[in-house]
Specification:
Blueprint: H1 3-14, E1 21-27, E2 33-39, E3 42-53, H2 60-74, E4 80-87, E5 90-98, H3 104-109, H4 127-136, E6 140-146
Antiparallel strand pairs: 1-2, 1-6, 2-3, 3-5, 4-5
Amino acid sequence: MDTNTNRRFFSRLCGGAYLKASITTCTFPNDVVWELLAQGDEIVAMYTADMVSLEEGYTQNELEEAARLTEETYSPVDGLTVCSEISDGVFTLRLGIDMEEASTFALHNLGLISDRITAGSNGWLSLEGTISSFTREGASCTTENFRPKPAE
């Protein structure tokens, strides 16, 4: 997402009253992108979209089966929103995670986070720790911080 999209999103999400809010975009060498929405060091939501085309050697039936299995796996999990579609020979998977609703146990079992959140982690998924983990895996990450507009 670009800066203006991020700013509009946070304005709508928080009614303009966002404090210590940020969106971090992490791009991996295989072009997978994760958007991490955080309040201070606490990740409150995560989003990714991934696309695979028929040109990459998959058949239409294989992509349809992948879409079905993906939705079967992720849809029942609280805090996860999944949408998959096939259009013009491209399979697109969109996955959103609401960290307030999602079980870290379930996220860990699905391979979406590397470790469950424990009391020692202050009870939340750390933005700093996640960025560190992602960069060790080869991702490049940029963070845009949002602050309230100064009073006039």
